[in-house]
Specification:
Strand content: 5-15%
Order of helices and strands: EEEHEHEHEEHEHEH
Strand order of the largest sheet: 1-2-3-4-5-6-7-8-9
Number of strands: 9
Helix content: 10-25%
Number of helices: 6
Shape: elongated
C-alpha cells in the first residue's frame, strides 16, 4: 500500500494502483466506481490523472469501461483540482460531468475519448474560466453550437478537437474570437471544417496559433475556380448588403 506524503493532514493507506507525488496523484490501472471512493481522501491534490495509459508500455494501451458517472460523484468536492485527466473512460456521460461544475480553478482538462459527451455536458464546464488546455478529441457528439459553452475560457492556449466531426466553421470561429492566447489548435478529422471558410479565417484570426488540419488546400484548376467563385459571391453579397444599408439610411 502507498502512504501519502506531505500534502495530507492524516496518514491513510491507499491502494497500489494509486500513486502520490507531492500534490499530484495518478492511477496505474483502470479503476472502477468503487475504487474512485479513495479519491475523496485526497483533499490537497491539485493534479489528478485517472488515465493509466501514460504509465503503460505502448503495446498495453487501452480503453476503459469500469469508471462511470457514479464514480465521478467522489470527485464532486475536489474543487481544488487544477488538472484532471479522464481520457478514454467511455461510460462517462453529461450527468457525470455535473460533478466537475465546482472546479473553477481548472487549468487543464482531458476528456478525450469520452464519446458519450454532448453539448449539454459542456454546460458544466462554463465556470472553468481559468482553463488553459482542453482536450475533447474523439468527443464526436459535440457540435459547433455546443462550443458556445466554452466562450468564457479566454485564457485557452491549447485546444484539441481531433475527430470531432460535427464541429463547424462558424462554431469554431465564434469560439476563437474569445481565445486570443490560443497557441495550438487541433482540428484534424473535423470533416465539417472547410479550408476556405474555416481554416483560412482561423489563421487570420489567430496568426500565432499552430493549427493541425488535415484537409489540403486546393491544388487543381477546378478546385481553385470553386474557391475564387465563392470569394466573388461573398464579395457581391457584401456589396449588396452595404448598398441596401446605405439606401435605408438615406
Amino acid at each position: 500500500m502507498n502512504t501519502p506524503d506531505t500534502p495530507f493532514e492524516n496518514k491513510v493507506e491507499l491502494p497500489e494502483w494509486l500513486c502520490i507525488y507531492e500534490d499530484q496523484a495518478y492511477t496505474t490501472d483502470d479503476i472502477s466506481d468503487e475504487d474512485a471512493a479513495y479519491l475523496a481522501q485526497l483533499p490537497k491534490v491539485r493534479t489528478l490523472s485517472l488515465n493509466p495509459n501514460e504509465y503503460r508500455l505502448v503495446g498495453c494501451l487501452g480503453d476503459f469501461n469500469r469508471l462511470t458517472d457514479a464514480g465521478l460523484h467522489y470527485l464532486h468536492d475536489m474543487t481544488q483540482l487544477e488538472e484532471l485527466d479522464l481520457g478514454w473512460y467511455h461510460r462517462i456521460t453529461n450527468a457525470g460531468l455535473a460533478n466537475l461544475r465546482g472546479m473553477t480553478k481548472m487549468r487543464k482538462l482531458g476528456l478525450y475519448g469520452c464519446d458519450r459527451i454532448t453539448n449539454a455536458g459542456l454546460t458544466h464546464l462554463r465556470g472553468m474560466t481559468q482553463m488553459q488546455e482542453l482536450n475533447l478529441a474523439g468527443c464526436d457528439r459535440i457540435t459547433g453550437a455546443g462550443l458556445a459553452n466554452l466562450h468564457r475560457m479566454t485564457q485557452l492556449k491549447k485546444l484539441n478537437f481531433f475527430g470531432c466531426q460535427r464541429i463547424t466553421d462558424l462554431g469554431l470561429l465564434r469560439l476563437c474570437r474569445h481565445t486570443p492566447q490560443l497557441r495550438e489548435l487541433n482540428i484534424w478529422g473535423c470533416d465539417r471544417v472547410t479550408w476556405f471558410f474555416g481554416f483560412l479565417p482561423l489563421k487570420a484570426l489567430l496568426p500565432k496559433c499552430y493549427i493541425h488540419y488535415d484537409d489540403e488546400k486546393p491544388t487543381s484548376f477546378y478546385e481553385w475556380a470553386k474557391v475564387i467563385a465563392a470569394g466573388i459571391l461573398l464579395g457581391v453579397i457584401f456589396i449588396l448588403l452595404k448598398h441596401l444599408f446605405f439606401i435605408s439610411n438615406s
